[in-house]
């Protein structure tokens, strides 16, 4: 008969132990579980950071809950008024890594909704005020509507989204 060649890890396990393929599969599963745990921890930290930012800006939302699913943030809770609700949406939406905000918040005191404006290169609050109100000198209305997120009317950036409230 002679000498025959076989693949030693492919046969039946008569001697006990695990094949190298089984060991590799277990290691891959372990690494995947570790990765999922790291992702879950990072997501929880990011959610907590967003909530802390909202709190630090004195935006009061009862039972505020923020959940991140990929690049989408889901927000629930009860805002005192429409302006607070919109500011919370802007804080979350203007956060790096967030592409969509699923706003599920309720409002205690209903008011008309503001428009949103995405800042383009070359925009100023005066230019935006001229576009929405027909008067560049109304820029303080936009500035005030976006406090406390805006600290200076000259510090806006392309891609930032701003509240444009209706004039009284």
The CATH architecture of the largest domain comes to: Orthogonal Bundle
How far is the N terminus from the C terminus? 100 Å
The dominant shape is: elongated
Percent of residues in helical segments?
25-40%
CATH class of the largest domain: Mainly Alpha
How many strands appear in the DSSP assignment?
Answer: 6
Mean pLDDT: 90
Number of discrete helical segments: 4
List the helices and strands and how they pair.
Blueprint: H1 20-56, E1 61-69, E2 72-81, H2 82-93, E3 100-103, E4 106-109, E5 115-118, H3 125-133, H4 139-145, E6 161-164
Helix pairs in contact: 3-4
Domain LysM: 115-164
Protein name: Peptidoglycan-binding protein LysM
Coiled coil: 18-49
Task: List the main descriptive attributes of the protein structure presented here.
2 domains, alpha/beta, 4-stranded mixed β-sheet, 6 strands, 168 residues, Membrane-bound Lytic Murein Transglycosylase D, Chain A, two-stranded antiparallel ribbon, Helix Hairpins
């Amino acid at each position: 008969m002679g000498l025959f060649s076989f693949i030693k890890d492919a046969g039946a396990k008569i001697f006990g132990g695990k094949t190298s393929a089984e060991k590799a599969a277990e290691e891959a599963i372990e690494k995947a579980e570790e990765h999922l745990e790291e992702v879950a921890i990072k997501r929880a930290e990011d959610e907590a950071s967003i909530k802390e930012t909202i709190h630090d800006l004195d935006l009061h939302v009862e039972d505020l809950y923020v959940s991140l699913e990929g690049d989408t943030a889901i927000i629930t809770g009860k805002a005192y008024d429409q302006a607070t609700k919109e500011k919370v949406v802007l804080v979350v939406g203007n956060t790096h890594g967030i592409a969509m905000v699923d706003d599920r918040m309720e409002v205690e005191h209903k008011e008309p909704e503001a428009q949103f404006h995405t800042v383009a290169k070359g925009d100023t609050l005066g230019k935006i005020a001229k576009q929405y109100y027909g008067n560049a000198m109304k820029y303080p209305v936009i500035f005030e509507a976006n406090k406390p997120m805006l600290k200076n009317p000259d510090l806006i950036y392309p891609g930032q989204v701003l509240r444009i409230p209706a004039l009284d």
